[in-house]
Request: fold
Amino acid sequence: MEFDKEVDARNLNCPLPILRCKKGLSDMVANQTLKIMATDPGSEKDFTAFCTQTGHKLLQLDKAEGMLSFYIKKRNAE
Amino acid sequence: MAKKLALIASKGSLDWAYPPFILASTAAALGYKVSIFFTFYGLTLLKKDIGNLKVSPIGNPAMPMPVPMPNLAQMLPGMESMATLMMKQKIESKGVASIQELRESCLESGVKLIACQMTVDLFDFKPTDFIDGIEFGGAATFFEFAGESDVNLFI
Reply:
């Protein structure tokens, strides 16, 4: 899947992957896609909750050998 | 309109420093407007140097220990330093953020940090003991933002 920016949050634990994601999205423009990699097993639920509450869209989640790759599309500014 | 979170941080040990800063930084990332009121031992978390926070096994029977040990033995000299060292090693090896990093994240994302003026006076702390960018206030200041918050927690 294509993306505009990549953030590595591997080997980090709650809440760092979410904080890194928020930081990563902050200098992107609407509809760009952020790829964020994490190994915290709790992050699957947390990223879903992050997207539900912020309006960013979780386009895709790839799982491979304990690694989670989230593709998140930045929402339109209100 | 952004949701609002109001926290009271009343404890100043290494373990209890986590909940307010984790919740505040995460809520800010979710778009909440966040304020934390630091009172009593929680004031320690606003000091310039928070690298020396400690965790004590005394009176904390749920704390996982490498060897089972009666609580009475945990008052021996050096036990607190050992418990703190072990906790810090665990924090680092598990990729858990340091308190400094979480507090920095709170400051960057505009979390309002308020020191309880009464306890500052009570403990003879000086305003210069604390980091820049904080405010000072009392119970009425807390209710000013707590009264209109969506979530209020005492920690």
